[in-house]
């Protein structure tokens, strides 16, 4: 369980950094992180970090696929986590 928590902390920090990097590159007209890769970080478990960072730095907040897609991914991940924890008996 501790490894899962550590993984989620690390992937969320990475997702937040990638989001900030993409925002910086958008401002400076540099090479951008593809939307596919931004969603990949979310799918790998960084959806909370990505979403919170997007809201704080106001990045991609006008794009409906991000403002709907990331919360949907987050909800599915939370439900899967609850199911896995319940099935493995990690609640105890």
Overview of the molecule:
There is one protein chain. The chain is mainly alpha-helical. It has one domain. 82% of the residues lie in helices and 0% in strands. The longest helix is centred in the first third of the chain and has 27 residues. The protein starts with a helix and ends with a helix. The model has no long low-confidence stretch (mean pLDDT 94).
Helix content: over 70%
Classify the beta-strand content into a percent band: under 5%
The rough form would be described as elongated
List low-confidence stretches. Answer: none
The biggest beta sheet, please? none
Number of domains: 1
Please compute the radius of gyration using only Cα atoms. 14 Å
In N-to-C order, the SSE pattern is HHH
Count of DSSP strands: 0
Helix and strand layout, with pairings?
Elements: H1 2-28, H2 35-57, H3 64-88
Helix pairs in contact: 1-2, 2-3
